[in-house]
Amino acid sequence: MKNYIIITFLLILIIFTSLVKTSTRDLEAKIFTNEEEIKLLSDKKELMLLEHNYLSSPERLYELKNSLFNENLIPLDLKRFIFLKNHE
């Protein structure tokens, strides 16, 4: 009788251990996936911040205007525009 109790107890421990290992493996897979997504998003964030900082500084915008547009740019008056409507 004593041997049956010990064998039953050992089988229960083996089953419990396998269930815990399986759930731990699933959690580790989810954690790894989330960490990879976080790395990708942080890289994307850094690129977006770099682009924003590079293009949004007034000095940089002025340099781009001078290098891309050789002629003088003049502001346009909205009152001088004529809006045409399409009547069908």
Quick description:
Helix content is 75%, strand content 0%.
Structural account:
This protein is mostly helical and 88 residues long. The chain has one domain (2-69). Helices cover 75% and strands 0% of the residues. The protein has two helices and no strands. It starts with a helix and ends in a 20-residue tail after the last helix. The relative contact order is 0.04. The mean pLDDT is 87.
Chain-averaged pLDDT: 87
Question: Class by helix and strand content?
Answer: mainly alpha
End-to-end separation in angstroms reads 97 Å
Q: Into which percent range does the helicity of residues fall?
A: over 70%
Characterize the largest beta sheet: strand count, sense, and whether it forms a barrel: none
Element-level helix/strand string: HH
Unreliable runs: none
Radius of gyration: 34 Å
The number of E-state strands comes to: 0
- Counted up, domains total 1
Shape: elongated
Strand content: under 5%
Total helical elements = 2
Key features?
88 residues, mainly alpha, 2 helices, 0% strand, elongated
